[in-house]
C-alpha cells in the first residue's frame, strides 16, 4: 500500500523518541544499514553513551537532538535545521509515547495531569509533528510518515484508560492521513506492537504474553516498511487474536477479556 523502502543507504531518517526502547533499537539497526539519522528525544544521556561507541563514519551520519514531542517550537526548529542540512527528509518515524496505567476505580481529579500528559504525548505530539513536517513533505513531493501506535488501540482495555484511547485515536488518524496523503506521494505507515520489553512495560504488574525484545521489534518494523505495508503488527501469534477481537460481539469480547485477565493475574 506504500512504496517499499528497500534501500536504506543514505536515506534521511528522523526518529522522534529514539532515546530508549523501540526507537533506540530501530536507530541501532539503521546505523548498520548506513542511513543518515537524526535521533531525537527528551533525555539524550543513554543515547549519547551509545553514540560514543560508533565509528567515526557512523558518527558523521548520526545527529542527536534534544526534543520534547509536546513542544512544537523544538519540533519546528529541528525540522528546519534538518531541511537545511539534508535538503529533505525521506522518513519520519514517530515512536515517542508514555503509558498511564490508570484504572477506573482509581480515577480521580488528581489523575488528570497524568491523563493530560498521556494525551499530549501520544496524540497531540504526533499532531505537532504533522503540522510542522507536512508542508515540507508536500513541497518535496515525496516522503514517508511512520507512527508507532499499539494493539491497545484495537479494543477498549482496562488499566489503560488514557493510553488505549490515545492509541485508538492515533490508529484512526493514520487511516485518514494515508487516504489524503497518498495522492501527494507521501506514504503513511501504522505500527502496532504487542508487548515489548521496554522501560514502559517493566512497570507492569501483570502477565504479558508473547513479550518481545526491542531488537526483535525493530526487525519487524523495518521489514514492514520494506514491504510497503500500511499496518505492521507483531508478534502475529498474539496481535492477530486482538485484531479478530475487534469483530466479536461486545458480550463475547468482554467475557473473553475477563477470562484472560483472570488467568494473567498472579
In words, what does this structure look like?
This protein has helices at residues 21-32, 45-51, 56-60, 72-86, 112-140, 163-181, 199-202, 214-227, 236-245, 250-264, and strands at residues 12-16, 36-41, 62-66, 91-94, 143-148, 186-193, 231-234. It has a seven-stranded parallel beta sheet with strand order 3-2-1-4-5-6-7, with helices on both faces. It is an alpha/beta fold. The protein is built from ten helices and seven strands.
Q: What's the topology here?
A:
Blueprint: E1 12-16, H1 21-32, E2 36-41, H2 45-51, H3 56-60, E3 62-66, H4 72-86, E4 91-94, H5 112-140, E5 143-148, H6 163-181, E6 186-193, H7 199-202, H8 214-227, E7 231-234, H9 236-245, H10 250-264
Helix pairs in contact: 1-8, 4-5, 5-6
The string of secondary-structure elements, in order, is EHEHHEHEHEHEHHEHH
Average pLDDT number: 93
* Tally of distinct domains: 1
> Can you identify the CATH superfamily?
NAD(P)-binding Rossmann-like Domain
Beta-strand residue fraction: 5-15%
CATH domain class:
Alpha Beta
**Major sheet characteristics:** 7 strands, parallel
CATH architectural grouping = 3-Layer(aba) Sandwich
The first-to-last residue Cα distance is 42 Å
The amount of helix comes to 40-55%
As a whole number of angstroms, the C-alpha radius of gyration is 18 Å
Helix/strand-derived category reads alpha/beta
How many strands in all? 7
Number of helices: 10
Amino acid at each position: 500500500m506504500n512504496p517499499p523502502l528497500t534501500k536504506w543507504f543514505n536515506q534521511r531518517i528522523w526518529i522522534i523518541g529514539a532515546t530508549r526502547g523501540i526507537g533506540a533499537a530501530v536507530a541501532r539497526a539503521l546505523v548498520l544499514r548506513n542511513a543518515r539519522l537524526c535521533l531525537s528525544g527528551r533525555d539524550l544521556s543513554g543515547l549519547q553513551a551509545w553514540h560514543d561507541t560508533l565509528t567515526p563514519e557512523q558518527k558523521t551520519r548520526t545527529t542527536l537532538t534534544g526534543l520534547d514531542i509536546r513542544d512544537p517550537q523544538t519540533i519546528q526548529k529541528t525540522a528546519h535545521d534538518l531541511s537545511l542540512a539534508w535538503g529533505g527528509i525521506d522518513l519520519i518515524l514517530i515512536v515517542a509515547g508514555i503509558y498511564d496505567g490508570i484504572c477506573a476505580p482509581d480515577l480521580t481529579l488528581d489523575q488528570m495531569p497524568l491523563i493530560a500528559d498521556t494525551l499530549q504525548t501520544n496524540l497531540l505530539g504526533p499532531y505537532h509533528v504533522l503540522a510542522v513536517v507536512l508542508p515540507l513533505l508536500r513541497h518535496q513531493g515525496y516522503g514517508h510518515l511512520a507512527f508507532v501506535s499499539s494493539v491497545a488501540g484495537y479494543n477498549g482495555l482496562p488499566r489503560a484508560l488514557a493510553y488505549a484511547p490515545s492509541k485508538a485515536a492515533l490508529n484512526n488518524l493514520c487511516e485518514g492521513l494515508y487516504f489524503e496523503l497518498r495522492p501527494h506521494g507521501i506514504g503513511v505507515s501504522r505500527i502496532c506492537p504487542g508487548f515489548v520489553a521496554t522501560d514502559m512495560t517493566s512497570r507492569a504488574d501483570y502477565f504479558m504474553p508473547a513479550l518481545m525484545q526491542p531488537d526483535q521489534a525493530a526487525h519487524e518494523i523495518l521489514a514492514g516498511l520494506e514491504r510497503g505495508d500500511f499496518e505492521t503488527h507483531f508478534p502475529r501469534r498474539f496481535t492477530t487474536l486482538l485484531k479478530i477481537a475487534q469483530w466479536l460481539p461486545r458480550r463475547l469480547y468482554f467475557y473473553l477479556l475477563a477470562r484472560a485477565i483472570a488467568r494473567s493475574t498472579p
